[in-house]
Design brief:
There is one protein chain. With 421 residues, this protein is mainly β. The protein folds into 2 domains: 164 residues, no CATH class; 159 residues, no CATH class. It is built from 3 helices and 25 strands. It has a 7-stranded antiparallel β-sheet, with no helix packed on it. Strands 7-10-11-12-17 form a 5-stranded antiparallel β-sheet. It has a 5-stranded antiparallel β-sheet with strand order 18-19-20-25-24. The longest helix is centred in the N-terminal third of the chain and has 23 residues. The radius of gyration is 24 Å and the shape is globular.
């Protein structure tokens, strides 16, 4: 079914309202650190007047008041990343089922205790290659992604890559972020460069034979894990999870990389925007990143996904907003709630949409001087307002593709909510 709707784009600068910006930790993954404690204390001081007013009012539906605290029950909508890894003590076998797919089966643990040689205990030294060890295979060539591979990269992120790995500013991979991993990747427990202070970087081990290769990652600390990837010369891949402990995240991923999907990108619309037309109220520190120069919307053929690329007048170094600030991109499609991307000062990009859990439907990031948002086409459908006994809009139809002729231009460089056009 083809649903015809109009796409509108709005780029706006978030108001700089750091609650105690000077106390804000650069990375809050360690929730018990001194910097986090200072930040939380500052938030309490700043919000004390509002808390008193809130306590005097009735809590909204779905919220319970207990001893002066608001308690919200966990739901898929408010616990977006609550999808714990439960593979400890198990293995997952991926048997080739054609040139571009595998048949997966979870089986009892098949961990190989002969892990071979310790290659590196990863440490962030700041060197360009600190994240990986380059390996030239001599006893076997591996049939991966239509290639006969004899050079691999063993990474600090629990993956085997066919090219030097890049970085992602995300805290962890969700389904959409995993779909846009840059290069061919095989990972039993793919993590990003961001991690809690109590989780050490792993030590990587390698054992090669004429039958294939075994790669093992072991990380210690208060949080620890011991995981393994075995690639046989037949092309069969086995992921084994000896221990995971309290590590309940990490993506299980086999992908040829986003480059395999790029030939399937169809340009739906391309819009140019005049330079230096940023709204006067935009802060000087973010004006270059808010100066929209082009907007390109592409659809991934056969995947039901879209890629929105916003070119700006910034340099790569000036794309990230200053500490405490953010850049907000809003994309609306017909009657659907707006997709909102917030780019933070630590390069993290967060995508939200009212009424939907976005974990598996959208992701975003920066590439050079461009902002890119990837999302599923079906996330653009209106959300049903039908309730029992109500004549609402009813279930929203699925959207197969976007009709190019219906994409319209409506841009605002650096406008806040009160200055849209």
């Amino acid at each position: 079914m083809l649903v015809r709707r109009s796409l509108f784009l709005l780029l706006a600068a978030a108001v700089a309202v750091p609650i105690v910006a000077q106390d804000h930790p650069s990375d809050r993954t360690c929730v018990t650190g001194a910097a986090t404690s200072m930040y939380v204390s500052g938030m309490h001081r700043a919000n004390a007047p509002r808390l008193a007013r809130a306590l005097a009012a009735s809590p909204p539906a779905g919220v319970e008041m207990r001893n002066g605290m608001f308690v919200v029950q966990k739901t898929p909508a408010n616990s977006l990343l609550d999808h714990p890894n439960d593979l400890e003590g198990k293995s997952v076998v991926f048997a080739p089922a054609g040139a571009d797919r595998y048949r997966a089966a979870t089986v009892p643990l098949q961990y190989d205790t002969n892990v071979g040689t310790a290659l590196r205990m990863f440490v962030n030294s700041g060197a360009p290659d600190w994240t990986y060890v380059r390996i030239t295979l001599t006893a076997v060539k591996l049939p991966l992604f239509g290639q006969s591979v004899d050079t691999i990269y063993l990474t600090a992120f629990n993956s085997i890559a066919l090219s030097p790995p890049g970085f992602t500013p995300a805290t962890q991979y969700d389904r959409m972020e995993a779909a846009f991993v840059q290069g061919p990747t095989i990972a039993p427990l793919l993590m990003t460069s961001r991690r809690p202070a109590t989780l050490n970087l792993p030590t990587v081990y390698k054992r090669e034979s004429a039958d294939g290769i075994v790669v093992t990652w072991r990380a210690g600390g208060a949080l620890s894990y011991d995981v393994q990837a075995k690639i046989a010369k037949s092309g069969e891949i086995t992921f084994s999870y000896r221990t995971l402990g309290e590590v309940t995240w990490g993506a299980v991923l086999i992908t040829p990389g986003v480059g395999a999907f790029l030939p399937g990108l169809t340009t739906v619309a391309q819009l140019d925007d005049p330079a230096d037309d940023v709204a006067a109220e935009a802060p000087e520190s973010a004006r270059a990143a808010l100066d929209i120069r082009s907007v390109t919307l592409q659809q991934v053929t056969g995947m039901g996904g879209c890629l929105l690329t916003i070119g700006t007048g910034a340099t790569p170094a000036s794309m990230v907003p200053p500490l405490g600030d953010g850049i907000i991109v809003k994309v609306t499609f017909g009657d659907a709630p707006a997709l909102t991307m917030t780019l933070l000062w630590n390069s993290e990009a967060i995508v939200t949409q009212p009424g939907r859990a976005m974990r598996d439907t959208a992701t975003a990031g920066i590439s050079g001087n461009q902002i890119q948002i990837a999302f599923t086409v079906d996330s653009l459908r209106p959300i049903s307002t039908t309730t029992p006994g109500d004549r609402g809009h009813g279930p929203a139809p699925a959207i197969d593709r976007i009709e190019p002729a219906r994409v319209q231009r409506r841009l605002c460089d650096g406008c806040g909510d009160g200055a849209r056009r």
